[in-house]
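Reading a protein record of the kind used here takes only a little practice. The record below shows the convention in full.

——
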Amino acid sequence: MKKIGDPTPPCRRCIAIRFFIGAVVGTALLNLLSPQTFELLKGQSTLTLSLGFVGTLAVCAVGKAVLELRDARDR
C-alpha cells in the first residue's frame, strides 16, 4: 500500500486507467448535463471522429513531451 508522502509516481498503466475512467465519467456527465452537445457529432463519419480523437491524443503527447523537456532542462 502506498503511503501519502511517497514520492514515487504512478505507473503508466495506472495513469492510462485513470485517464480512461476520467474520460468515461466526463462523457457521462456531459451527456447528462448537456445532451444537445452530442447532436453536433450526429452525421459525422467514423473516420472523421477517429482522426479527431487521434489528433487530440497527438497534441497531448507533444505537449507532454515539451513539458518533460522543460523539466529536464531545469535540472
Observations:
- The two ends are 30 Å apart (CA to CA).
- The chain has one domain: 12-74.
- The chain has a mean pLDDT of 86.
